[in-house]
Amino acid sequence: MNGSISKNKTTGKYDFIFDAGKDPLTGKRKQIKRRGFESKRAAMNEMTRLKAQVLENDFLDLNHLTYEKYMDEWFQERKFKLQHSTFEIHSIFYRNVIKPKLGHLKLQQVTPLQLQKFVNDLVNQSSYSAHTIHLVFRIISSSFKKAVILKLIKSDPSIGITLPKTRQREFTVWSIEQVNFFISEAPKIARLTRYYIAFLIAIFTGMRQGEILGLRWKDIDFATNTLYIKQTVTQNGEIKVGAKNEASVRSIHIPSKLADELKATKALISDEKRLLGDKYHENDLVVCTLDGKPVIARNFRKEFYKVVEKVDLPKIRFHDLRHTHATILIHQNVNVKLISERLGHADIQTTLNTYSHVLPNMQKTVSDQLDKIIGV
User: Nearest Cα to 32, choosing from 75, 70, 64, 73?
Assistant: First the structure.
């Protein structure tokens, strides 16, 4: 890490320059220059200090590193981490919303005040919903968290920013009577969709759509009636290892009724494999197309809506089967911690927030039970 100090003939003051290794973003070597010191000793002291910071990986040279330049590199990493559809959505929000307002700023010079103004302007001067603004800010927040990890900035300016309040998205659930009606009437439909087994999985387990479509036969232990969630299928039908978060990689115990339905489906798929032979795509998927390929989510949901219409039940989103499952368990006084683990929520607070409107009924049940067992 050589360096040199020289007297500037124009100003009469001292300047220094030294090699600081490779730029962490571009891989190119960079030099650090400083000018205008009153004495050679002052220049030497500052150069020594900066060299020490470089050795400790604390030096942040932001003379040329803008937020836009940093984000160009950061998005290259996100491309491998996010689902394709999610990456495209984030890219669009960055290009159209974030970059025009923040891209020109120097990375280390971005302040909490600037980010708060950015959010305030979105609230007051745009038609974006509170949920959309939260999504946009999550992109910004994630980028600064990574910048701290890379030691490009010393503190995260996105911490403590006030965001608009979001209202809990409403969802519709079926009652236990409607669930039982669906299970009894749907099999009577002529040429019932092959995806009916997926609807049962959702009702009996509360699994997410992508988790159901990614479930493999080898992830089912029929000896213990347990499912293991280890992969998902994206909206575009791409198989992705892992799940939404660490808590989502989990096991779920299933009732015997569902296990019997799964065994019947497995026998059917085995017959399809024999008929198609080499033309069958072996992905070991429980829910798949006739030739074994992953199912496109959009087509899958259409089949669900058709069945719901034919049995003449109130229309709900497929994801609402997950809410239906959770609500039924809550009404049966199942421990909320167990429900949270079954759903694969990151923490129990997510479960409490999502189903807070159901929990007051549980409180009433508790008080009724206390009246019965404690005498005054």
Answer: 64
pLDDT: which is higher, 268 or 376: 268
- Domain assignment present for 329: yes
- Distinct helix (H) and strand (E) counts, the chain: 15, 8
* Residue appearing with tokens 């199942």: 334
If asked whether residues 250 and 345 sit together in one domain, one would say yes
* Domain span including residue 48: 3-55
Residue 40 pLDDT exceeds 70: yes
CATH number for the domain harbouring residue 193 = 1.10.443.10
- Please check whether residue 253 is in contact with residue 204, taking contact to mean a CB–CB distance below 8 angstroms: no
H or E stretch at 17? strand 14-22
- Rg of the chain over CA atoms, in angstroms? 29
At residue 3, φ and ψ (nearest 5 deg) are: -155, 165
* pLDDT above 70 (res 365): no
CA 4 to CA 15: how far, in whole Å? 8
| 221 membership: H or E segment, kind and range | strand 220-221
* Structural domains in the chain (count): 3
Query: Are the C-beta atoms of 159 and 124 separated by less than 8 Å?
Result: no
CA–CA dist 323, 289 (Å, integer): 26
Pick the closest to residue 46 from 21, 74, 14 (CA basis).
14
- 139 and 287: one domain? no
Stronger pLDDT, 38 or 52, i.e. the higher one: 38
CB 234 within 8 A of CB 287: no
Give the length of the chain. 376
- Give the DSSP H/E element, type plus range, for residue 34: strand 29-37
Give 208's DSSP letter: -
**What secondary structure does DSSP assign to 124-158, as a single string?**
HHS---HHHHHHHHHHHHHHHHHHHHTTSSSS-TT
| pTM, 2 dp | 0.66
| Ramachandran region, residue 141 (left: φ > 0; alpha: ψ -120 to 50; beta: rest) | alpha
- Asked if 104 and 68 count as a contact pair (C-beta separation under 8 A), the reply is yes
Q: In the structure encoding, which two tokens stand for residue 213, read together?
A: 């479509």
What are 178's two structure tokens? 């409607």
